[in-house]
Amino acid sequence: MFESVLFLHSWFRWVVLISIISLGFKFIKSWIKNEKWSSADNSYLNGFSQIYYTQLAIGLTLYFGLSPIPKAIISNPDLIKDPYFFFFGIRHALSMILGVGVFHMGKWIAIKKPIESRYRILSITMIVTLLIVISAIPWPKLVYGRDLFRWF
Ligand code: HEM
């Protein structure tokens, strides 16, 4: 069960990353071309929220149920001094939650501001969200790195 959920979480990162990058490009293009806000844009925003929340839900399932890492930290809190345990026990989870917070704050600000500034605010929001997510992924070669493409 743990391996299957970790496999899903690992591959779903690509869905998250591709959707942030494509939505970011879309908003930047619409900002540069001074396009009008359309109802499709609302659907893109909602679609992205759902993708991000799906990954958060899988991550929370690992964290509070299946992963041996948080359990090891609870039974031996000194492990938190180890970069590997600190990354998966604290930094990874908090950064990804911060990412969704930044996305929602940007979306909220964009909706409150005049419609002409929406694409600009959302472009910046997607760039900041992307940077947060990228900085919290266990890329290969880092001390806590994992494979880019996980196989069982
Ligand atoms: C956009 C959000 C997220 C992305 C892109 C993401 C991505 C990843 C990736 C790529 C891995 C390594 C998978 C592998 O070993 O192949 C990982 C591991 C992990 N993630 Fe996430 N994650 C996200 C959110 C979360 C959240 C919110 C939590 C918990 C609250 C979480 C908990 C974990 C845990 C515990 C592991 C390690 C499990 C283990 O090896 O025991 N993730 N995540």
Structural notes for this entry:
By secondary structure, this protein is an all-alpha fold. The chain has one domain. The chain is about 75% helix and about 0% strand. The protein is elongated and about 55 Å long. The N and C termini lie close together (about 10 Å). The mean pLDDT is about 95. The site of protoporphyrin IX containing FE has 26 residues, from helix 1, helix 2, helix 3 and helix 4. Keywords: Membrane, Transmembrane, Transmembrane helix.
SS summary, helix count: 5
Count of strand segments: 0
Overall structural class, as computed from helix and strand content, comes to mainly alpha
* SSE topology string: HHHHH
Bound molecules: protoporphyrin IX containing FE
Considering DSSP H and I runs of 4 or more, what fraction of the residues is helical?
over 70%
Low-pLDDT residue intervals, each spanning 5 or more residues: none
Q: Describe the biggest sheet? A: none
Count of distinct structural domains: 1
Strand content: under 5%
End-to-end distance: 11 Å
Tertiary shape: elongated
Mean pLDDT: 97
* Rg over alpha carbons: 17 Å
